[in-house]
Amino acid sequence: MSKAAIQFFRGVNEPVVPDIRLTRSRDGRTGQATFRFEQPAAIAPETMGDITGMWMVDEEGEMVTREVNGKFVNGTASALEAVYSWKSEQDFERFMRFAQRYADANGLGYSQSQDSDQTEGADNQQA
């Protein structure tokens, strides 16, 4: 079983663990996960190459988003923000399986927002 990982460059795992926030439509069919990486290795000065996407890789395969933006402070890259969107319950369930594997691989926990409408049902998903 391969370890779940996030990559900005194919084959290179990002060591910085992001803050991840989920939002879902009321019917649960659509939604998005916003990933925020503070000082990720992918934007270190010694890293050469353009970031063209964020890959979420695990034993089932990979998911990708091309919606990746840099955040700058005083002209210096300080963070990356990526948004992964889903359009069906199956896509959401697949994302949650990845998220559980990624959390397990990185010793992370899950906490539900005070605004339960945004993450309703997310904590009931089984890996």
What are the salient characteristics of this protein?
127 residues, alpha+beta, Elongation Factor Tu (Ef-tu), domain 3, 4-stranded antiparallel β-sheet, 2 helices, globular, disordered C terminus
Topology:
Elements: E1 5-9, E2 12-13, E3 19-24, E4 31-38, E5 54-58, E6 61-65, E7 68-73, E8 76-86, H1 89-106, H2 116-119
Antiparallel strand pairs: 1-2, 1-5, 3-4, 4-8, 5-6, 7-8
What does this 3D model show about the protein?
- The chain is α+β, with helices and mostly antiparallel strands.
- The protein has one domain: Photosystem II Psb28 (Elongation Factor Tu (Ef-tu), domain 3).
- The protein has a 4-stranded antiparallel β-sheet with strand order 2-1-5-6, covered by helices on one side. The chain has a 4-stranded antiparallel β-sheet with strand order 3-4-8-7.
- Strand 5 and strand 6 form a beta hairpin.
- The C terminus is likely disordered.
Tally of DSSP β-strands: 8
Helix content: 10-25%
Order of helices and strands: EEEEEEEEHH
Gyration radius over CA: 15 Å
Q: What does the main sheet amount to?
A: 4 strands, antiparallel
Strand order of the largest sheet: 2-1-5-6
In percent, how much strand structure appears in the residues? 35-45%
- Which fold name is given in CATH as the topology? Elongation Factor Tu (Ef-tu), domain 3
Q: Unreliable stretches, pLDDT < 50, 5 or more residues?
A: 115-127
Tally of distinct domains:
1
CATH class: Mainly Beta
The end-to-end span amounts to 14 Å
The H-level CATH homologous superfamily, spelled out, is Photosystem II Psb28
Shape: globular
Q: Determine the mean pLDDT.
A: 86
Main location: membrane
GO cellular component, one term: photosystem II oxygen evolving complex
Subunit structure: Part of the photosystem II complex.
Membrane topology: Peripheral membrane protein
